[in-house]
Amino acid sequence: MTARSCQNSLRQCLLLMALFFLAGQTLAQDCGSKNVPCLVEAGEYHIAIPAEWENGPTVVHLHGYGSSGAKVLGNAGFVNQLASRGYALIAPTALPWHDGKPNDWSVRDGWQIYPRRDLIFLQEVISDAVNRFGVSPDQILLTGFSRGGSMVWDVACHSPNLALAYAPAAGGFWMPMPEKCSAPVNLLHTHGFTDPMVPLEGRSWHNDEVQFTISQADIWEGLQLWRNANTCPSNATEHEISDGIWRKEWKCEYGSLELILHKGGHGLPKGWATMVLDWFEQLGH
Fold it and tell me: What is the annotated signal peptide range for this record (predicted)?
């Protein structure tokens, strides 16, 4: 349509402009389902938004080694648990650590060949979700399982302002451990007492394929680092034991720090999502 015809039919021009705008909005939000990821410069993520959510709280969950954001969204029970509490779920996807290898997060473990800096990638994901879906950056809880849990520890330590709170499970720092973290945080860590994959005491193994030895740090030493960052007393002041769940809470000058131990192994205890969301909501977000 020419400028002359627009002058003759201003209403038609405005209608066309509105249609183009609405089409752009539809395309901008037409992603995030289990089968259609949202793309950012460094990768992709999936998102599930409950009805009537509109700028409500959001859980960003980092999958375990070899998994993906699509698989996280495929866990209907987990998605529905969060949705029933009014939470959106963002599930970013890690990249293969090498050609033909499983997806893995670029955890600080002395290994230098990861294809992406995931601290930057996660910042991109959140920024995109804020702009595209109206996610509130002040109501984000970052969670993760296993290797994803280790990535949560790294983010909390080195980019503490990425989220309001952090709830990793079955993962912690790798060696070499950081000497200190950037700022106090709100952190709730969950771990299986008999976890053989990520033992509480840490472990090392040698990868014969790439001739490299990597080591998981001691979870207890990691908690000591968090106590230093949050200015907490050495001993927990609150204890609770019920139904195979042991909880310790430190009363810190800054942030908050709590540990949940369960009698299982490398997994999540029953009711984990509920416990984590209850804790998050008590922070007064």
Answer: 1-28
